[in-house]
């Protein structure tokens, strides 16, 4: 059988072949394949060493940069902590220097204790736990052989993991449509898992699943999906995310969906290689290969006919599946679920009607992919910080949002450059993403949806992507006030249109090839490249060419002189050094999300000016401040708005029907609830900045810290008392309180406290007078 050679990247290593539960839906013990009866109960050290050597050999041969190994069973914890430690140590020792090893264990949880978790912590083993929902749902199937419940012990295990979140991988739930879907989801979500997997119970056409209605499984999952979506998708659900990802052309996160070739192999306790465990539900011997770690390398396994059969993609599906409108997401469903005596696996999934309905529903509810924000990310951001992973989660959601807006602009009539951009997106997606990630692409898209006259800038975006991709293209680009902007690259000067007003538009033909570009007939047109500010290994764009940068509520500066650029470079380098040394908790998030610094025109009469724009994620705008301390504060303060704006793009933190105005102690005017939330979140960082700064600069640090900790704490209570925060918003407010609360107990000088109180009183008195 022909099929692509795909190296294995996922390895399921069976360390114990027996189980201490008697789950009646288990595919290992309750389905057609009973090969477990003839295998060793526990894997030997000799088999472990040989299996790991085979994986290492495969990694070297195919230069794999990352592999995933899951310790599995039966119940893997029956192998005991000592043996599990030896297995993990062997894997880390042999693979650690060769590739990035993602090492996990999947368990029913009943034997999980601190001793076992200490072993897993030593070897960085993430733990996934099987749990089917609340007590009623879980005990329907997951019981001991004598009928006793396993629920309390599993919940105790999950609570241990919640106290050691670095080890907590997630929860796996097998669906039973007899259970209440919302109750199941809420029970799982309450345990704050990093991820939830919902699994269709293994079944075939010969042994179909219990089905009270024709699409019972879709209906069950749809009820959960609608709740999940309404609550901001805060708990990542692999099944839903995979449908969303495959609907936009990305890879699936699970082997049960998508058209990607399988890259998984199982190694049993006797060293035998097998195909995916799910095949045990088809017929006795279905997953067997006849190969083992002692006599065969993994390349031989990859060429096995059974493995190749699962790597045919669309060509390996039956005619019914190939004609299905959702085949790009469904991929025919799980291979094992297609089995029928007489036609083997050349059938649709026994769940095909469910998959069609579920995928169609998800696509109908999501005009663009939905991004989950894990509780851990919400909590980290709410505290005022958030590391590179948390901010990258926000950045990914912004990328998706920009793509959706781009499609919306095209639907409103933007055609120039669309075909080029879609071709580049297929062939050079990284280059397209690099341009679409520019903060002012979204600002342009929003403006274009308001006024179609701006839509022509789409061609400039496509041209910039073509330059980055090294592609060949002829693009009719747009000039604004005599400047052709290529986002992320710079601007070509073509000269103003004679007699035209400010904002006048004109066109020019741009020729692009091999990363070079020129205007037809104007090869000598002056080029104004984007400049960058550098501090060590961190760099941001100094944006003074993009026409859509003027969206910050303050007038953007024009093209900077070289002296101005040098001044910005000097201050930026010093400010970043200060952030890394004195405020290191903010540095990872800034590294991951701050891409652009936009100069503003200094205010008349002097003073500082800084701003962010809701539709320009990644950009901070500021007039050149007087010193690096001020710039460091502006960057930290304004980036809080960047983060919170991105959070609000994904989830609802407050009731938008609340039209009241609230006192904000940093503003002369009353603020709507979102404005108060934004200001409070920014001032968590302001208070923290002066909290640390006061040790090296007591004046004005002491007074500023004393003032802003009190006022920020008051604003937090105003938010909490508004009665308009959603459940997730209340959680966010509680996170801010957890950070600020302890600061109220820190000592400050009496003089600083008095001065801070006087400033606060003066502000509030002026505000009250203004309202009267």
UniProtKB/TrEMBL annotation:
Tell me which CDD domains the record gives: Radical_SAM (cd01335)
Pinpoint the Radical SAM core domain residues. 5-238
User: What PROSITE patterns does the record point to?
Assistant: RADICAL_SAM
Provide the alphabetized UniProt keywords: Iron, Iron-sulfur, Metal-binding, S-adenosyl-L-methionine
Give the transmembrane region(s).
none
One Pfam match, given by its short name, reads Radical_SAM
Instruction: Please give the SUPFAM superfamilies that the UniProt record associates with this protein.
Output: Radical SAM enzymes (SSF102114)
| Metal-binding among keywords | yes
Keyword Coiled coil assigned to the entry: answer is: no
Which molecular-function annotations from GO does this UniProt entry contain? iron-sulfur cluster binding; metal ion binding; oxidoreductase activity
What PANTHER family does the record point to? ANAEROBIC SULFATASE-MATURATING ENZYME HOMOLOG ASLB-RELATED (PTHR43273), RADICAL SAM DOMAIN PROTEIN (PTHR43273:SF8)
Record's protein name: Radical SAM core domain-containing protein
